[in-house]
Amino acid sequence: MGRLKRSFFARESVDLAPALIGTRLVRRLDDGTLLSGIIVEVEAYIGVKDRASHAFGGRRTARNQAMYDEAGTAYVYFTYGMHYCMNIVCAERGVPQAVLLRALEPDPASHAIMRRYRGVESERLLCSGPGRLCQAMAIDRALNGIDLCTSEQAWVESVQSPAREVVRSKRIGIDSAGVWAKRLLRWSEKASRHVSKPVDGKRSVRAAIRGSKNRKTA
DNA sequence: ATGACGATTTACT
DNA sequence: GTAAATCGTCATA
After folding, report:
1. Which structural domains are found in chain A, ordered by start?
2. Could you report the per-residue pLDDT of A171-218, keeping only the tens digit for each?
3. What are the tens digits of pLDDT across the range A75-98?
4. How far apart are CA A106 and CA A79, in angstroms?
5. C chain positions with any atom within 7 Å of a protein CB
């Protein structure tokens, strides 16, 4: 359906994050190829108070400057020397809030190309993680700072579909953020098998199988 | 100029 | 479960 407008993104990250679940991220390559997927997992980064945010304490650097731009701006950064992560900037200009896109349910028409970009066969592993989804969607530094409300390279669309059950949990990979590591600022579609990590308190299928085996042999 | 580290992923025990 | 991969970024000097 239609591209989401700036008014959709212009709100607090804790409000935007759950609203993004079930919408569609679309990427248009230079040759016109379209790649897309339904957003099934996101995290909110609350701003200067948020120890886990790149903008903690009001930090403003060459890397995170996009976080201070207007709502609907893409904030893409490089991390661990090999992966990209994509955020959607929100709130008002000058207020560094953003929502990290952590997982997509890839649309079937995109599977073949995503498999090539990712180098894996498993559909489940195509977009189930912030670095994975960027690799699958060919999202890199070049998209940092683009306006998702007007860009021809990437945008977000509303989707008509049955209500998706959304669950909250703790954010991933920010254990060193003190009390902020415990806040429930991650949202994911409960039924999705394309989420990057199981929600708190739920073991992965693999862990459950291993657990039952150990129980029998104990 | 330098060193520690990361909003991750992958392979392996 | 643990560890390696791999390099830009940021704080400190």
Report:
1. 6-217 (3.10.300.10)
2. 999 887 778 888 999 999 999 999 999 887 555 444 443 333 333 332
3. 999 999 999 999 999 999 999 999
4. 23
5. 1, 5-11
Q: Which residues of A108-128 are buried (b: 16+ CB within 10 A; e: fewer)?
A: eebbebbbebbeeeebebbbb
C-alpha angle A151-A154-A155 in degrees, rounded to nearest 5: 85
pLDDT tens digits, one per residue of A18-36: 999 999 999 999 999 999 9
Paired tokens of A29: 């390559």
Protein-proximal nucleotides of chain B (any atom < 7 Å from a CB): 6-10
Positive or negative, the CA dihedral A87, A141, A71, A158 is: negative
For strand B, is any atom closer than 7 Å to the CB of A125? yes
Q: How do A154-157 and A166-169 pair as beta strands?
A: unpaired
